[in-house]
């Protein structure tokens, strides 16, 4: 097996999560509250960033994938947001508090307008949260907000969000990119064209209008998207005049663009290319410890992967540390459970699957799979393809023959989301830093398909545990329920957690102000030369 140079760097990050008590009010600091103007910002030349793909949709209610979130978080803002230090703070809300078990009150920022001049107010919040939960709309991110029972307009700048039962994770869910507020005028236009025979969830994609520091300028499908600075932004304006996101699927091409100053930033960077960029005088690397999980998934509705014994044996056969050492030059941590250590709900007390190829062989032989089988494993980028080749060799020792099938990002999501796959290599970032998002989306049967459960896993006991955890009112109860659910998931292995990667971004040496959320999307408002 091909060996790569082993290089290990230890980076320490302090992940601070702000918890809101039942009666505690969270208020924003006054700094940067709408008094700055574009003239105060440091204006730089336009910034270009090369990514794997352009967005699948610029409607935050229609997409839940990395290429879309990378762009959308710069156009749209939610009531609350994560800071680069991973605290939840008010954004379009000035403050919020839980006023009873099922009611959250949000005091909204006054004087904010959407990019099209439509005022942001309580009616706009209601319009957005009603739309994302509208069953006729069928938003793939609706599961994030399905516990909202009603959104009530108290006055122009006050809104009450009532949940079906107590839901401690509501602020975290509202901080997800799907909580970004869309201009009500564009939402109205989307409903109107749908009533005239058009397709729902299309008008916002054609005309994305939010309140964020950047506004949509133009798109060339599959090629690039350009955003320009919102000169009327309510807070401190963006420091760059514009951001262009280019679709560059090939790693070598992205690196060449960075090296020749054609691109100012590139993401992702394969770990094996880290040194090349970091050692150049003209470029540098940013490394962020992530709450992403890279995993091998099965289609649990297809034989032989409908048999937990097969899935468990494959999980036992894969040497995760070898993948990290030989393929990722050490820039990752072994994932033994679905949740990264920084995520609420992570547990060190689970019985995890140990690497033991001989035990895997015996398990297959005992259950009638001694002769093995042939299957397809679907991937969408170079790193996943390399991992698939590693696994292909590992499983070949067990008479399991894997055929690697590589697709570009959009086709991959359609293919795997539609259940056409046998096995696949996927990733999931727990954006909310809460187990509800990290587990409910991936393993609850209501989310089978594009919402997140691409393994098509269905277990009534897991569903019940995840449902109960959503309504638990204290952290200890929630943790116990999530631990029990995770143990069942590990025992049945609908997916195999492989590693938590370091997020690697290449930058020009003169680029400043960049930061990255550990679920992968980028903080770009302060980026400049």
Quote the average pLDDT. 90
By secondary-structure content and strand pairing, the structural class works out as alpha+beta
Quaternary state of the chains: single chain
* Regions with little confidence, pLDDT below 50 for 5+ residues: 1-42
Note the beta-strand portion: 15-25%
In which range does the helix fraction lie? 25-40%
Rg from C-alpha positions?
23 Å
- By DSSP, the count of extended strands is 21
What best-fitting shape do the alpha-carbon axes yield? globular
Distance between the termini: 43 Å
Distinct helical segment count: 15
How many strands, what sense, and barrel or not for the largest sheet? 12 strands, mixed
Protein name: Glutathione ABC transporter substrate-binding protein
Organism: Salinicoccus bachuensis
InterPro entries: Peptide/Ni-bd, SBP_5, SBP_5_dom
Signal peptide: 1-18
If you had to describe this structure to a student in words, what would you say it looks like?
It comes from Salinicoccus bachuensis. Residues 1-18 form the signal peptide. Belongs to the bacterial solute-binding protein 5 family. Keywords: Signal, Transport. Residues 87-449 form the Solute-binding protein family domain. The longest helix has 18 residues, at 475-492. Residues 1-42 have low confidence and may be disordered. The protein is globular and about 70 Å long. It has helices at 66-75, 122-132, 170-174, 184-195, 203-206, 251-259, 274-278, 308-317, 320-327, 357-366, 382-396, 409-417, 435-443, 460-471, 475-492, and strands spanning 25-27, 47-51, 80-82, 88-90, 93-100, 103-108, 148-155, 158-163, 214-220, 224-229, 242-247, 265-266, 283-289, 292-298, 332-334, 373-379, 400-406, 423-429, 495-508, 515-516, 522-523. The relative contact order is 0.16. Helix 8 packs antiparallel against helix 10, helix 13 (435-443) runs antiparallel to helix 14 and helix 14 packs antiparallel against helix 15. A hairpin with a 3-residue loop joins strand 9 (214-220) and strand 10. The chain has 15 helices and 21 strands. By secondary structure, it is an alpha+beta fold. Strands 2, 9, 10, 11, 12, 13, 14, 15, 16, 17, 18 and 19 form a twelve-stranded mixed beta sheet that branches. It has a five-stranded antiparallel beta sheet with strand order 1-5-6-8-7, with helices on one face.
